[in-house]
Amino acid sequence: MARLSKPSMDWVLVFVPVSIVAELLGHPVFVFITAGLAIVPLAGLIGRSTEQIANRVGPRLGGLLNATFGNITELIVSVLLINANNFFIVKASLIGSILGNLLLVLGISFIVGGFRHKEQRFNPRAAGVHSASLLLAVAGLLMPALLVLTTPDVGFVQREVVSGIVAIVLIVLYVAALVFTEITHAHLFASANPEERTASWSMRTSVIVLVVSALLVGLESDWLVGSLTPAIQALSLPPIFVGLIVIPIIGNAAEHSSAVFFAIKNRLDVTLEIAVGSSTQVAMFVAPILVFISLALGHPMDFVFTAFEIAVVSVGTLIVALIALEGRSNWLSGMQLVGAYIVIAAAGFFIKSTT
After folding, report:
1. Phi, psi for residue 123 in degrees, rounded to 5
2. How far apart (Å, rounded) are the C-alpha atoms in residues 77 and 43?
3. pTM for the structure as a whole
4. Using alpha carbons only, how large is the chain's radius of gyration in Å?
């Protein structure tokens, strides 16, 4: 059987030199657009190089590597936003990344796969573990917000302490879920038709591509964040819409295309792992670790999200949890997920920043 090749977005790398020119010219809108486009293929290269390394070091260490570098682009962008004190956009982008994977990516995958295959099946155990983890993360997001809502005079120190405790608990639970799915109970999550995975790149090539891509993502992200405020003003875009929709799509575009590709090939377990697994990682690892990174940077960020952000991520998680119970999908399920995402995006466009 011929080996399937995932879609490549390498041609978009042309925007790397274009963004350099834009930065030299000093046009913020041009910098914002070209830097955002340049990040898309670079994020894809990070994912491919990590996968190549994972294929060489074995499934257990490989799973850890994929979990560690899976959302490195979002982490880099978020750190730079924190350093620029754009906390409102950071939090919106974290929620947007979760929603984008849960509703938009999974929805498009179900639609495309459903039109080609009347009904598709996936491992409900794996989807159930991710759904339970996401529900726990939603509870973690809710507690600090409830504290602020019910105790308006709560101080900065108290908010940071609660945020830190929530962050630690979520990280511990995320690591525990990794150990459960990758080590102690890995047999429960094995694919019925496992693909033989071999590395086509040398270890040296994989490491070089990973390091260079990560450095370039850091550079492009710096330009993206630096041009963010003037670009938002020039384009008259609501800040929460940029954080909720635009930035997550930039950081996850390459991953999105891979999820859809595997759905077309009727490998929905892989699609679920990319989409729902990525959301779980953002909610239980990336978002909590940013609390501690912000403290190290001297720009402390709490774990208090807005009512709108908590509501939409709760809705998205519940919808996917209900779908996961069945262990199967069709194009109608996909339409429902995408429809929910469009409604949330429309509402987000009209929400005004309060910070």
Report:
1. -75, 110
2. 12
3. 0.87
4. 20
